[in-house]
Amino acid sequence: MLPSQPLLHTVVLALTVLQALASDTFIAAVYEHAVIQPKDTYKPVSPDNALALMNKNMDVLEKAIKEAAQQGAHIIVTPEDGIYGWRFTRETIYPYLEDIPDPAVNWIPCTDPTRFAPAPVQERLSCMARDNSIYVVANIGDKKPCNSSDPGCTSDGRYQYNTDVVFDPEGKLVARYHKYHLFRGETQFNYPKEPEAVTFETPFGKFGIFTCFDILFREPAVVLVSELQVDTVLFPTAWMNVLPFLTAVEFHSAWAMGMGVNLLSANTHHTSLAMTGSGLFTPEGPVAYHYDSGTEEGCLLVAELSARPRLSPTYP
After folding, report:
1. Are 227 and 199 in contact (CB under 8 A)?
2. Which terminus of the chain faces fewer neighbouring Cβ atoms within 10 Å, N or C?
3. Over the stretch 76-123, which tens digit does the pLDDT of each residue have?
4. Are 166 and 173 in contact (CB under 8 A)?
């Protein structure tokens, strides 16, 4: 008799965890995504139209996630702005946002999509992780109401955050990070009142996460490494290869070497804005990287990394 689908999923997940526990390494993936942009970001669209655009991007990401999982990847990082693009105003990005709860609520959107407010993007990302038994890291937008008693509350009565989410191989939301250091054009977002130091444990090391411009500042970047002792940093980015960013591959590789951690860097791909350069970087240098300023194609990188680089005999 064939096992039921839930039982089969549990067996596959258990084998994946045991495999990771039995090894000092893990297989990581990043995907550099040529984002499908909305045609008009100067006036609000309907929620249905916003979701249609995001589903087009998630169709591409889902193929990359499946391919990474087929190659044995335990985790995949996708880029900043990878689901809806950029160049929004505060008003026009609103239809693309969802209310993202604190991961402490212990939620699997794929199996319980109606527990909170409608969250079709979180549901689909959760199912991608669950269906492929892989950690999925994505960048989306969070919205939170506020009121006049809050001195920082905006006139429209809400906070809007550039947000990274992580779903584990069961599809559970295990991490949520609000970008603190917004770049000059990100007027559609608020920054949190305090910088967040977000970490989570996996069978293959302790992970931290932050977004793009955050890497240039002590909080959260240096704090995660020097004080919280993470093994691997997840880094969704939309990195332009111009000052003050410098070239993505060289800078991110040097940062990983200087900090003594793995850095999983997933960049958006947009050649006219000089956005390219993703990689799997370690304290010993890059294991795999991609830099392409000539085409508009995405790229998946997959490689095996040390799960706890500080314990490696070759640690710098």
Report:
1. no
2. N
3. 999 999 999 998 999 999 999 999 999 999 999 999 999 998 999 999
4. yes
pTM equals 0.91
Kindly state the helix (H) or strand (E) to which residue 17 belongs, with its residue range.
helix 5-21
**What is the pLDDT, as a whole number, of residue 9?**
62
Residue 120 CB burial class (10 angstroms; 0-12, 13-18, ≥19): middle
Across the chain, the runs of DSSP E, i.e. the strands, are 25-32, 75-77, 135-145, 158-167, 173-178, 198-202, 205-209, 232-237, 262-267, 278-282, 285-290, 299-306
Q: Which residues are catalytic?
A: 80, 179, 212
Burial of 297 (0-12, 13-18, 19+ CB in 10 A): exposed
Q: Nearest CA to 12 among 146, 170, 178?
A: 170
- CATH number of the domain at 25-311, out of 3.40.50.2300, 3.60.110.10, 4.10.410.60, 3.40.50.300? 3.60.110.10
The span from the CA of 41 to the CA of 37, in Å, is 9
For the record, the structure tokens of 300 come out as: 């998946």
**Which position has the token pair 């996708």?**
78
Write the single-letter amino acid at 96. Answer: Y
Which tens digits make up the pLDDT trace of 32-75?
999 999 987 678 999 999 999 999 999 999 999 999 999 999 99
